[in-house]
């Protein structure tokens, strides 16, 4: 099974209600975090960026 890829930035307004969380992207890259038996963080360039 192929892992999902991180979403690309798309400008828009934030939702007013619901179970939403958001974070300002200050660090210069965006990553998808997969939580299974280990910590995996994959940016669009497809290498692990998790701290060791």
Taken from the alpha-carbon principal axes, the silhouette is extended
Q: Which percent range describes the beta-strand content?
A: 15-25%
- Contiguous low-pLDDT stretches (5 residues minimum) are none
Based on DSSP secondary structure assignment, what is the total number of beta strands? Answer: 2
Profile the largest sheet. 2 strands, antiparallel
Radius of gyration: 13 Å
SSE layout:
Blueprint: E1 31-35, E2 39-43
Antiparallel strand pairs: 1-2
Give an overview in words.
The chain is mainly beta. The protein has a domain of 31 residues. Helix content is 0%, strand content 19%. The protein contains no helices and two strands. A two-stranded antiparallel ribbon has the order 1-2. It is extended and about 35 Å long. The two termini are 25 Å apart.
Short description:
Helices cover 0% and strands 19% of the residues. With 52 residues, the protein is mostly beta strands. The chain has a domain at 1-7 and 22-45.
Q: What descriptors fit this protein?
A:
0% helix; mainly beta; two-stranded antiparallel ribbon; 52 residues
């Amino acid at each position: 099974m192929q892992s999902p890829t991180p979403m690309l930035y798309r400008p828009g307004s934030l939702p007013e209600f619901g179970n939403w969380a958001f974070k300002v992207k200050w660090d210069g890259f965006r990553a998808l975090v997969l939580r299974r038996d280990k910590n995996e963080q994959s940016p669009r360039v497809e290498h692990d960026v998790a701290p060791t």
